């Protein structure tokens, strides 16, 4: 049975009946044009031709008759592989888990198909640094074709810029809808992909705890476009507050940056912001330098997973840097102010929300076994029980209760190691001739996945960082704070950046910022 988000279908139903017909005319024109010997615009025409030529022999667009009254929701896409073809691994998501998996998969054994609404992986630990210009956006985005070159080169491997909208585990099929730039470009359309092995690595979404106004007024920090939005808003507010005619009260509001959530991401962002204010705003926006403030709101302790001494150190350093720490629970978010549970009103010009993550609607909608907390349930080998050939890794997955294992934290180091483990497992399965759908029953899976926590790190601004190398909160181990930790933090992350190109970019960005200050142009 196709598993679909009903709300999703309802929202799009009307639009699709027309959109499908418009796509038909646009795409048939493209296909015909691509068959002309002299093609003047290869960028427009070739991709459509290549795309269709590797798909099912039936043209997914032309087969559908516009005269049907009911809108056609799915056109055919990649059909099941034949026994003499390479088996196909379909990877949903291009985050830490999905990308590490794709990097490790052997393209001689499998065709690899990735479905994701973004064509790159985001190196999230350095994302906060891009919001204030310490790093450039490109430095933290790694194109998928660089992570697994087979996706760009192999005839049966693809990257599809699309959202997965449902999974039919019994038919070994994934339902997708393309991501486009809206009606100015091309309307989205639906297609299906058959898989031999499916890996669900769809990540998570920010938790809002049902608080009204968060989605409308706050900015989350998860994607490069969020960092871009934060940077543009911060610089806009700085510039507007310098323009004649603005009231004192409005100036104070515009230059009040509020961060909700005192976990590593909220603290790192607050640290970056205070650095930006102390080093760059004070020099280059001298008229407004005394107005700009940062407030970090947290319901409990900041950095609750870190060693107590490190937390104390972080609290002192942040306060020294001018970050106001407020203990409180946000009750309501309005366009220009937030309201705390004790009734305090906090006006803001920029609001960044970073209060943890939970399963996204697509994960909720999938009719698959679930782990406590609503993530997709997996066994010790990261297989989804009760369905064949489906695996799940990263933030979207958790161990089913019967394994007796605890759900692992939503961390890049978990996602990355699960991706690496599963790539090895799938390669082994493929080498033993069980890569095709429904053929792995006789295979010995080997050692189950075991996670060993390597510790946590966080920067707090002013060239200071925390390094907590204990395996758990109760365990003993090294816990450091200060400038030395900052160099450990930077060395650790620059070596983790995926490509040499981005390592070089990050290094050059750090040196440029140190010598010339941050870039404050609002592009
Ligand atoms: C700012 C920030 C800093 C962080 N710092 C650290 C750190 O220092 N150390 C650490 O260990 N962890 C850190 N994390 C956490 C870490 O980034 C996550 O745990 C990690 O990204 C999880 O990887 P994932 O592959 O499961 O999910 P993600 O990396 O979130 O990837 C999910 C992928 O699924 C795609 N997707 C979503 N919906 C669909 C759909 N319907 N169809 C197809 N594709 C879809 C997304 O576009 C994305 O490509 C940080 C997170 C953030 C946001």
TrEMBL record:
Residues 60-85 are annotated as: Disordered. It catalyses: a quinone + NADH + H(+) = a quinol + NAD(+); a ubiquinone + NADH + H(+) = a ubiquinol + NAD(+). GO terms for molecular function: NADH dehydrogenase (quinone) (non-electrogenic) activity. InterPro entries: FAD/NAD-bd_sf (IPR036188), FAD/NAD-binding_dom (IPR023753), NDH-2 (IPR045024), NDH2-like_C (IPR054585). It is found in: Mitochondrion inner membrane; Peroxisome. It is a peripheral membrane protein. GO terms for cellular component: mitochondrial inner membrane; peroxisome. Pfam families: NDH2_C, Pyr_redox_2. It is an enzyme of class 1 (oxidoreductase). Residues 453-519 form the External alternative NADH-ubiquinone oxidoreductase-like C-terminal domain. Keywords: FAD, Flavoprotein, Membrane, Mitochondrion, Mitochondrion inner membrane, NAD, NADP, Oxidoreductase, Peroxisome, Transit peptide. Its EC number is 1.6.5.9. The keyword Heme does not apply. Its cofactor is FAD. Residues 88-419 form the FAD/NAD(P)-binding domain. Its main location: mitochondrion. Belongs to the NADH dehydrogenase family. Alternative NADH-ubiquinone oxidoreductase which catalyzes the oxidation of mitochondrial NADH does not translocate protons across the inner mitochondrial membrane. This is NADH:ubiquinone reductase (non-electrogenic). It comes from Crotalaria pallida (Smooth rattlebox).
């Amino acid at each position: 049975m196709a598993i679909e988000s009903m709300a999703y279908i309802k929202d799009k139903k009307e639009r699709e009946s027309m959109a499908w017909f418009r796509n038909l005319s646009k795409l048939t024109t493209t296909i015909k044009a691509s068959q002309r010997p002299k093609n003047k615009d290869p960028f427009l025409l070739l991709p459509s031709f290549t795309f269709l030529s590797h798909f099912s022999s039936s043209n997914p667009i032309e087969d559908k008759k516009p005269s049907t009254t009911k809108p056609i929701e799915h056109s055919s896409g990649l059909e099941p592989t034949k026994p003499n073809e390479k088996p196909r691994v379909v990877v949903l998501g291009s985050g830490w888990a999905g990308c590490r998996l794709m990097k490790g998969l052997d393209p001689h054994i499998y065709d690899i198909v990735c479905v994701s609404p973004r064509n790159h992986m985001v190196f999230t630990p350095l994302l906060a640094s891009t919001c204030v210009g310490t790093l450039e956006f490109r430095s933290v985005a790694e194109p998928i074709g660089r992570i697994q070159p087979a996706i760009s080169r192999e005839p049966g491997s693809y990257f599809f810029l699309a959202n997965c909208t449902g999974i039919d585990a019994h038919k070994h099929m994934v339902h997708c809808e393309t991501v486009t730039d809206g009606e100015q470009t091309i309307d989205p359309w639906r297609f299906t992909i058959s898989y031999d092995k499916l890996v669900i690595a769809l990540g998570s979404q920010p938790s809002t705890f049902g608080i009204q106004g968060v989605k409308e007024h706050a900015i989350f920090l998860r994607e490069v476009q969020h960092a871009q939005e934060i940077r543009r808003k911060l610089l806009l507010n700085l510039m507007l507050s310098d323009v004649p005619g603005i009231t004192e009260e409005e100036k104070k509001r515009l230059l009040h940056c509020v961060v909700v959530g005192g976990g590593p991401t909220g603290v790192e962002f607050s640290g970056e912001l205070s650095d930006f204010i102390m080093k760059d705003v004070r020099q280059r926006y001298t008229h407004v330098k005394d107005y700009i403030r940062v407030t970090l709101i947290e319901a409990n302790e900041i950095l609750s997973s870190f060693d107590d001494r490190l937390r104390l150190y972080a609290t002192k350093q942040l306060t020294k840097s001018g970050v106001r720490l407020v203990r409180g629970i946000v009750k309501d978010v309005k366009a220009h102010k937030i309201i705390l549970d004790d009734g305090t009103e906090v006006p803001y010009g920029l609001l960044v929300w970073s209060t943890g993550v939970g399963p996204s609607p697509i994960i909720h909608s999938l009719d698959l076994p679930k782990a406590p907390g609503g993530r997709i349930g997996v066994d010790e080998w990261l297989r989804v029980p009760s369905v064949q050939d489906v695996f799940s890794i990263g933030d979207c997955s958790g161990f089913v209760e019967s394994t007796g294992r605890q759900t692992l934290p939503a961390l890049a180091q978990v996602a990355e190691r699960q991706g690496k483990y599963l790539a090895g497992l799938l390669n082994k399965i493929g080498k033993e001739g069980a890569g095709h759908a429904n053929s792995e029953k006789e295979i010995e899976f080997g050692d189950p996945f075991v996670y060993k926590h390597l510790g946590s790190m966080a920067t707090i601004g002013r060239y200071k960082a925390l390094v907590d190398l204990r395996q758990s909160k109760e365990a003993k181990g090294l816990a450091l704070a200060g400038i030395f930790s900052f160099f450990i933090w930077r060395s650790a992350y620059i070596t983790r950046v995926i490509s040499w190109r981005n390592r070089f970019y990050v290094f050059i960005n750090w040196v440029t910022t140190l010598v010339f200050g941050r870039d404050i142009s609002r592009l």
